[in-house]
Amino acid sequence: MRSAAFILLACLLFIDVEGMVLPRGRCQCMDTGVESIKPKLIEKVEVLYPSSSCKNLEIIVTLKGEGEQRCLNPSSHFAQNFVKKMQKQKRSRE
């Protein structure tokens, strides 16, 4: 009877651990990133703000076609202007 209770408790713990959201680990961009990319090649933009696991602001773009991901240099003029433009478009849709 005790072993059945132990197994049930162990199962409940595993279920709870699986549902937990873990932090994203380490930085996704290993270098400073590229200065610019042609906007017509960009399919998706993801901005990752600094966190306890990565102290850097990261801008990751997914390119059309093969879905290749590239990091943009967050301090480049292109990246700053592009993110501002995307935020304006997002606000206008809401």
TrEMBL record:
Gene3D superfamilies: 2.40.50.40
Family stated for the protein in its record: Belongs to the intercrine alpha (chemokine CxC) family.
One Pfam family this sequence matches: IL8
SUPFAM superfamilies, sorted: Interleukin 8-like chemokines
Native species: Anguilla anguilla
Organism lineage: Eukaryota, Metazoa, Chordata, Craniata, Vertebrata
Role: Ligand for cxcr3.2. Chemotactic for macrophages.
Keyword annotations of the record: Chemotaxis, Cytokine, Disulfide bond, Secreted, Signal
Superkingdom classification of source: Eukaryota
Sequence ranges assigned to domain Chemokine interleukin-8-like in this UniProt record: 24-86
GO biological process terms held by the UniProt record: defense response; immune response
PANTHER family: C-X-C MOTIF CHEMOKINE 11 (PTHR12015:SF191), SMALL INDUCIBLE CYTOKINE A (PTHR12015)
UniProt-recorded Gene Ontology molecular function terms: chemoattractant activity; chemokine activity
Protein name: C-X-C motif chemokine
GO CC aspect terms: extracellular space
